[in-house]
């Protein structure tokens, strides 16, 4: 089939790791591997190395969003950069992520005309921003040719606030990064955490409570923490189990895969606000057994390839899994098989079908922005 010229807009800064950013970059690489020409526009100051398919859109501003701090780019300068990017490229289709977040995607939606695909990641059902501005956004959404949601919950939220519907296509995972299977020890001693550990909704407080309960009877128990946050504050919060923490901080993809493979159980004690759970697919790809909070999004991703539990049950469920090598081996094998369903070649092929349907509906491609 004829290769497509694809423009992808990420609303969040690439200078700070996050689920949407990871998805955008993984999708771009998978589409390029399929023979397409892809350019990604995203906030970034370019302080670190960026893939050659990324056009940095400059500094981002931190704003509270969905229990986190989103680093977005807004204002006249960002508007001008989006206009220039659209003018300098001749895209067949434009793919905007999180088109309701005040950032580059909204600006591109205002400026562009032609085949436009959007992806919704957010799963905050009581979104004050969407409730307040949903009526204003609906006319703008009429310019959208096709909608994607990464999960049933993300789809339900956008239908509730914006009307219309969306096809469900999950986040992708790089199976090759997981590495080969490793032997399962008779007794597990390392519990892992991946994410921004200073954000309350990621559940580090719940994990520390469980570790404090288990530590007296488990002198070898360790907690491997990967992600951003203040390590000193984390150790103070850990109190008597501070010496059990191994805090790696942010790492690259290879370091993340290696850390996941070093864990006997990966724990995702998140308290809410999750639309998918990319950390779960990454752990499963690495062959690491998963114990996650009982959230709709996590249950949908795990299926039977891991366990979910209520926050109050975390300590006993974690202990039982650490002490059961047969069950952990079963989850490791089932997790790798489950992760294959989210492999980037599978996800990218589904996204490409949406692109081609959007182009068929409007074969003119993306028109350059009008001068105003």
Provide a short characterization of the protein structure.
The chain has 372 residues and is of the alpha/beta class. It has helices at 19-33, 76-88, 104-111, 128-141, 152-162, 204-214, 231-238, 253-261, 278-285, 296-302, 314-322, 325-340, 344-361; strands at 5-9, 37-42, 54-56, 61-65, 68-72, 93-97, 116-120, 146-149, 167-168, 190-194, 222-226, 245-249, 265-268, 290-293, 307-309. Strands 3-2-1-6-7-8-9 form a seven-stranded parallel beta sheet, with helices on both faces. The chain has a six-stranded parallel beta sheet with strand order 12-11-10-13-14-15, sandwiched between helices. Strands 4-5 form a two-stranded antiparallel sheet.
What does this structure look like?
- There is one protein chain.
- This protein has two domains: 5-172 and 343-361, Rossmann fold; 175-340, Rossmann fold (3-Layer(aba) Sandwich).
- It starts with a strand and ends in an 11-residue tail after the last helix.
- The chain is α/β, with parallel strands linked by helices.
- The strands form three sheets. A seven-stranded parallel beta sheet has the order 3-2-1-6-7-8-9, sandwiched between helices. A six-stranded parallel beta sheet has the order 12-11-10-13-14-15, with helices on both faces. A two-stranded antiparallel sheet has the order 4-5.
- Helices cover 40% and strands 18% of the residues.
Relevant terms:
Rossmann fold, 372 residues, alpha/beta, 2 domains, elongated, six-stranded parallel β-sheet, seven-stranded parallel β-sheet
């Amino acid at each position: 089939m004829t290769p497509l010229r694809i423009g992808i807009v990420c609303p969040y800064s690439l200078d700070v790791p996050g689920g949407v950013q990871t998805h955008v970059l993984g999708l771009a690489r998978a589409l390029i591997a399929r023979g397409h020409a892809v350019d990604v526009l995203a906030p970034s100051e370019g302080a670190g190395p960026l893939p050659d398919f990324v056009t940095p859109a400059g500094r981002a501003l931190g704003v509270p969003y969905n229990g986190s701090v989103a680093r977005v780019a807004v204002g006249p300068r960002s508007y001008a950069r989006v206009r220039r990017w659209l003018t300098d490229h001749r895209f067949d289709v434009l793919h905007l992520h999180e088109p309701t977040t005040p950032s580059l995607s909204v600006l591109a939606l205002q400026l562009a005309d032609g085949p436009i695909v959007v992806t919704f990641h957010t799963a905050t059902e009581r979104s004050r921003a969407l409730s307040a501005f949903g009526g204003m956004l609906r006319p703008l959404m009429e310019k959208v040719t096709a909608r994607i949601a990464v999960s049933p919950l993300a789809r339900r939220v956008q239908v509730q606030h914006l009307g219309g519907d969306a096809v469900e296509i999950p986040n992708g995972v790089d199976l090759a990064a997981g590495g080969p299977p490793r032997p399962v020890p008779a007794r597990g001693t390392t519990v892992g955490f991946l994410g921004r550990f200073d954000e309350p909704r990621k559940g580090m407080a719940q994990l520390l409570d469980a570790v404090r309960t288990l530590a007296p009877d488990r002198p070898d128990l360790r907690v491997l923490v990967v992600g951003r946050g203040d390590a000193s504050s984390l150790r103070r919060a850990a109190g008597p189990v501070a010496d059990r923490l191994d805090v790696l901080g942010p790492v690259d993809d290879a370091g993340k895969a290696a850390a996941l493979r070093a864990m006997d159980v990966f724990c995702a004690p998140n308290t809410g606000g999750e639309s998918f759970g990319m950390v779960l697919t990454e752990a499963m790809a690495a062959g690491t057994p998963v114990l996650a909070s009982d959230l709709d999004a996590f249950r949908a991703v795990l299926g039977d390839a891991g366990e979910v539990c209520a926050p109050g049950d975390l300590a006993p469920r974690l202990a039982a899994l650490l002490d059961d090598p047969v069950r952990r081996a079963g989850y490791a094998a089932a997790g790798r098989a489950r992760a294959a369903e989210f492999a980037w070649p599978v996800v990218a092929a589904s996204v490409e079908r949406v692109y081609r349907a959007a182009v068929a509906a409007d074969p003119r491609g993306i028109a350059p922005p009008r001068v105003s």
